[in-house]
Design a protein that fits this description.
Four copies of one chain form a homotetramer. With 257 residues, the first copy, chain A, is an alpha+beta fold. Helix content of chain A is 29%, strand content 28%. Chain A has two domains: 149 residues, Medium-chain alcohol dehydrogenases, catalytic domain (Quinone Oxidoreductase, Chain A, domain 1, Alpha-Beta Complex); 101 residues, NAD(P)-binding Rossmann-like Domain (Rossmann fold, 3-Layer(aba) Sandwich). At the A-B interface, α5 of A face α5 of B.
């Protein structure tokens, strides 16, 4: 196995990456070493490949891609208790500063000091092994496959959104966008108690997937159907209780309001 | 059909009740008239029969029992728009003062001025027909039976509890008590996103019903098993996120803390 | 005293308005009659005068303006208990349908059926007297003047915003816009526990008023100062906990995100 | 300066404590060394002195008391950035495991692995100096005295309670108990937006202090006055929005419900 390296914009290579092997030679007491099994490809990986940067993060040096990963523990640090060699695991890709204000407030995911895989200058996880803190490595139940486990990171985006939105049992929701994040958000909204979730997109192919996930998901083609009319007619003029924006397209943000 | 009248403590009769027919002779513009089909028997009905009172509410005069009801609309007031003759419906048993502070705050269920069926001196619903405000009468979907509809009122207790508890997806909960309210609360907690709900009781017969409702419900016999040990061992020492008290027994309240 | 009537766009007259006197001749049991003392002029009044419409609401017939009012009770309905002749009061300008879903949910302010003063075709309150429901008429404490009382309606916008924002003690907030709504929102945010509120505007005159209201309000001139730099330097790079948008200007909405 | 050592139940001595000097000889990169200035005496210190234990925590060996402290930084670790020698500070007395589930959830105060000053076997802070993590050491504003700073820890109990209670502007609250925690809770409830706080106690001396803190605090003598009657008469029969229990006395818990 080799690492998948973004050498520079639009230039990938599959090769050894001795620097990271060296950096991870030793295992700190709270860390585990993981043999990587499956890694998902995120839109951000594609974006770094295509454009060489996302907002202020610029690929100035070769960087290993990937941050949605599962694997098997092959070594544990001296004080690790919740994991052991052979455990199948998935990993959280961002490691916050444990002393930061964000961590103390329970908002470690927005810690400005977070070190997030495949965000320059932090290397990603499309490589043979990695060293990771026990606290951000999670043992898989037997019925979760490595492929499913690599999807836990994007799924968590949806679960976090549904949690922040304080969905109540019986709520109706709209999810704008039927891409991967839109779909996991729709599923999470249902798991959080939504009675019905309207998912909109321009691509019928994506909407067909959305509609196949649950009878409680109503796909709406934003090109040929009128979301507001559909929602108002289904809800006796009341509308929905929650809107999730999963397109990143400014006019969609406006339509949420 | 006759009305079921609690004449006084431990004295029931099935008879006509002309006073209520007269009181409900005319239909106000916002009201509907409903032919009653099914009525559930609540613990409070039994308590009024057995003891003649609940807290400050005393049965001083013959009172019709029952407050969990479903039926069919047979007449609608002049300004009613959401219901029509023939609609199958269930009803909310408490009518608040629409001008009260509680109503303005969205807390009409705790309006001190609420008129609640089968709470002296307000008559209940074990009678042939009733007149009820459109706003508190709800049309049934075709797939809900009259018997299920009569259970909507107790079910709403569970849904309200799960909503107030702000259950988040993936939470674990304990429900103390496997009576009807305990069971609907457990089901509502699952619908609100709970991953697992521990239900405790002393009666194995009730626990067997609890366990049969969902693989995510874990029945715990409070006489032969230790709830705290079970919960801590299942959650790596963390405990549950939410506790619902559905016994009314003071030591159970204490154990919630 | 006469009524202030918007005859049509940009045409005001001060005159008798017999139609409303006739409509309010009789007093329903839950209503009170109020002699108007003071009425504030809202931006919406000015907008109807200047443009003749706001969004879908068009002035097609003469309409009395004004919805921020205080006055004195001069007559009470037969079942009114909380008010009596001579009481100094202020009034909520929107009367919802007491049977609506919005009212049942405690969201009567967004009831689609609300009848709101000075919103066509509902007349406003710049007139000698009005009839109003007891439930939306509030007795003034002795230390609140009629002028202050006429400001309760806009103040309530700020209090509602601070409540919905779930401000916690010690939070820092930004209010975009130092108009009347921006200022009442800043004051409400402080009353709700904010430690510091940054208020931005382009008009230095408005910022000077903002700064004079409390030492905990920091005025920021959006033309000559950089809000983000100021906030980050004051908060060790953390930023604020809450942002209130009180300009209605789309780029400001974007800057909230 | 010496350390105040609880040698065993009801046996205090003021003496050197070489073991702790040795344990704190070296400074980790994220730590600071603090010269202690002022330490408050908590009820728990008194309880350990009187009874030798609190719940499962037993004083089996000499233990330094005290956990409410302020002082001056006299040395900083190699990576400390927010503090420097000479800074006046107060300290949070409990250090959680930064890798724990509680920390990740933003609930580090209830981390089962927390090391809390003056809770056996962890030594307290009534000693000349201490070594403490930068993350739990807070620089004082110039207008806060060392004595006030030593009160920040109990004050934080009140602020945390008011935050958890989600106090909204204009709420009314009851605080049961006018001891130190009751008083800081009442003040925090006011800071969080409460309009009025009723504080009850049996000791008139404590109630006089409560009443002197703010005109918005209403002291109620639980022996000679009826709290419920007072609250209902002040609130037109509505009651309060929030109750804080600060006595630890079971019948008071019951009266909250």
């Amino acid at each position: 196995m080799k690492s998948l390296v973004l050498e520079k914009k639009q230039a990938l290579s599959l090769r050894d990456f001795p620097a990271i092997d060296k950096a991870e030679e030793t295992l700190a007491p709270h860390d585990v070493r993981i043999k990587i099994h499956t890694v998902g490809i995120c839109g951000s990986d594609v974006h770094y490949y295509t454009h060489g940067h996302i907002a202020p993060f610029v690929v100035n040096a070769p960087m290993i891609l990937g941050h949605e990963a599962s694997g098997t523990v092959i070594e544990v640090g001296t004080v690790v208790t919740s994991l052991k060699e052979g455990d199948r695991v998935c990993m959280e890709p961002g490691i916050p500063d444990p002393s930061s204000k964000a961590t103390r407030l329970g908002l470690y995911n927005i810690d400005p000091a977070v070190r997030f895989w495949a965000t320059p200058p932090v290397h990603g996880i499309l490589r043979p092994t990695c060293v990771h803190p026990e606290a951000f490595t999670f043992k898989l139940p037997d019925n979760v496959s490595f492929a499913e486990a690599a999807m836990v990171e994007p799924l968590a985006v949806g679960v976090h959104a549904a949690t922040k939105a304080r969905v109540r049992p019986g709520d109706n929701a709209v999810v704008l966008g039927a891409g991967p994040i839109g779909l996991v958000t729709a599923l999470a909204a249902l798991a959080a108690g939504c009675a019905r979730v309207y998912v909109t997109d321009l691509a019928q192919r994506k909407l067909d997937i959305a509609g196949s996930l649950s009878p409680a998901i109503v796909p709406v083609n934003a090109q040929s159907e009128n979301l507001v009319d559909i929602v108002l007619s289904h809800t006796d003029g009341w509308g929905v209780d929650v809107v999730f924006e999963a397109t990143g397209f400014p006019p969609c943000c406006q339509s949420c309001l």
